[in-house]
Design goal:
The protein is 29% helix and 19% strand. With 545 residues, it is α/β, with parallel strands linked by helices.
């Protein structure tokens, strides 16, 4: 049979199998699409919302009152008060500013569907699939075709088994990638908790995998000497409340129309949520602080701050001050800037130990500040697993390292979004990217970790960092400059050794005019002889920095 014909048949097979094209390393670029399993029958949770209210609400609110009283007492006695004035005096710890690189694990019920419409530019949000599958036309069309009109949000819960979830492997991969902290999506906007919470039955202990998914991650982080972060959404798409007459009500997200009467359609959207009278006091504060008591995180990563409810109304100051007081004198901790609102304006880039942006939405402001900050970007365009990810929308290793270098040069950290699939496995293409940057950091970490911004961050294809003790400048060449590199405005100390990290031979150089001219060895003009594939770092001792 003709060889070309056989190759054509193979390509056709991969196309109809949903795997797309195949790279030289044999790794599928597009995983198989998830659809409704054969013979799947929609579930019904063992308790209706009314039954949850009648059987568990009073007990839950009593437990919440005890926990809230504890929080109030700790904050009254402690150094840190639940006020803007007190919160604003807390700073990002040195370990956070030194770390530079963390893993953001976007994983939850949405990962089972693993889909969002593809975009030419910008971020895609598969982790909003639960909310949008019956509200946004493009999502509705996709969902009805692949899952069925009768398949509701909570029908994803029994399919979320965590079968392939391996926190030890993830923590080891984070270390191999050069990461210093891990932040899993402990509770996203749908309210499903990855740990057994005393304040809801909508958690991994009572539903889905029926086991604690956070504890083994915390243990794995400790084993690998990684810091652990608590991602916690301070808003939820819907939550059941009890009115003054004892009836169920629906609380919508803060920027929606607020409180509405209970309707039966809620039953397949918020199974396991226990109705309370006060969303913040009876639920948010006790749930978050119980997590702090139980898992002792190193940072809090608030999210869901796109709300008309103020930070005071969501009581995020109470949670943060309790977190600070709980750690005071024992270890240094941090809280981000997503507290909620003040006068209906975001507190992002205003309040918090470190400011945040995602896919560059507030990066311009971050680059102009001396405040600690962090960018969250994905290997792909997606927040959450997306079975459509291919080389077309997965960043290359070079592009990724160039972006990372740019962030660090401007004083930021990179919290890299990785997307586990519905079973808890990390797609192979993401593993490749993580290993690539880990390989690069083993050579070049000195110019990244524990550095601070130089007076000039970027000059064309060169980025700069400096050592904390101000003795060394690191010039990061994002493009190979050829036989020599001129760095304007920089003078090296007389007799100083200038070297390329990973190449243990001094380079020839001269101070020339108002800069320095560095000659690059003939041997390194052959890219095979260079210490890494991209972003080569010059280490320079300066006369004055």
């Amino acid at each position: 049979m003709n060889r070309n014909f056989l190759c054509g048949l193979l390509l056709f097979f991969f196309a109809i199998s949903g795997y797309g094209q195949v790279r030289n390393d044999k790794i599928p670029l597009a995983p198989k699409q998830n659809r409704r399993p054969d013979n799947f029958q929609p579930i019904k949770y063992k308790y209706s919302l009314e039954e949850l209210k009648n059987n568990f609400s009073e007990k839950t609110m009593s437990l919440a009152a005890i926990q809230h009283e504890k929080v109030t007492e700790v904050n009254a006695k402690g150094k840190w008060k639940p006020t803007p004035a007190s919160i604003d005096t807390h700073n990002a710890p040195e370990w956070f500013q030194d770390a530079k690189f963390g893993m953001f694990i976007d994983w939850g019920l949405w990962s089972v569907a693993g889909w969002a419409p593809k975009m030419e530019k910008g971020a895609m949000y598969p982790d909003w699939y639960e909310f949008r599958h019956d509200t946004i036309p493009e999502f509705v069309k996709y969902h009805n075709k692949n899952w069925g009109k009768d398949f509701k949000r909570d029908d994803f819960i029994p399919l979320f088994t965590a079968r392939d979830y391996n926190p030890e492997k993830l923590a080891k991969l984070a270390v191999d990638a050069g990461m210093k902290y891990i932040v899993p999506f402990s509770k996203h906007h749908g309210g499903f908790c990855l740990w057994p919470s005393s304040y809801t039955q909508r958690d991994a202990g009572d539903m889905g995998p029926k086991k604690d998914l956070i504890k083994p991650m915390v243990e794995s982080c400790k084993k690998q000497n990684l810091k652990f972060g608590f991602y916690f959404s301070i808003e939820e798409w819907e939550y059941p409340l009890i009115d003054s007459k004892g009836n169920l009500q629906k609380r919508g997200w803060g920027w929606k129309k607020g409180i509405k009467p209970y309707t039966p359609e809620l039953e397949k959207k918020i199974s396991g949520k226990i109705a309370v009278k006060d969303f913040a006091s009876d639920y948010l504060v006790p749930q978050a602080t119980e997590f702090i008591d139980k898992y002792d995180p190193d940072l809090i990563w608030y999210d869901g701050d796109m709300s008309s409810i103020s930070a005071e109304g969501l009581k995020t100051y109470e949670i943060a001050s309790y977190f600070y007081n709980n750690a005071e004198g024992r270890k240094e901790v941090a809280v981000n800037d997503r507290y909620g609102t003040l006068d209906k304006k975001w507190l992002r880039s205003v309040r918090g130990d470190f400011f945040t942006n995602e896919y560059g939405d507030m990066e311009k402001q971050a680059k102009q500040t001396t405040h600690a900050w962090e960018a969250c970007w994905g290997i792909s365009q997606s927040f959450g697993y997306n079975w459509q990810d291919t080389e077309a929308n997965v960043i290359s290793s070079k592009e990724f390292i160039d972006k990372f270098v740019d962030i660090v040069a401007h004083g930021g950290n990179l919290l890299l979004i990785v997307n586990l699939d519905g079973h808890g496995a990390l797609p192979k293409i993401q593993v490749i990217r993580l290993k690539d940057i880990g390989k690069w950091l083993k050579v070049n970490g000195e110019g990244i970790y524990s550095t601070r911004p130089f007076t000039r961050q970027i000059d064309g294809p060169v980025a700069f960092t400096r050592s904390k003790d101000n003795k060394y400048l690191y010039a990061i060449m994002k493009e190979w400059p050829g036989q020599e590199l001129y760095l304007k405005g920089i003078k090296a100390e007389k007799g100083s050794k200038i070297e390329i990290l990973g190449y243990n031979k001094p380079l020839d150089w001269i101070n020339s005019g108002d800069g320095i001219n560095v000659k690059l060895p003939t041997k390194l003009q052959n890219e095979k002889n260079r210490p890494c594939e991209y972003a080569w770092i010059l280490k320079i001792r300066l006369t004055d920095i």
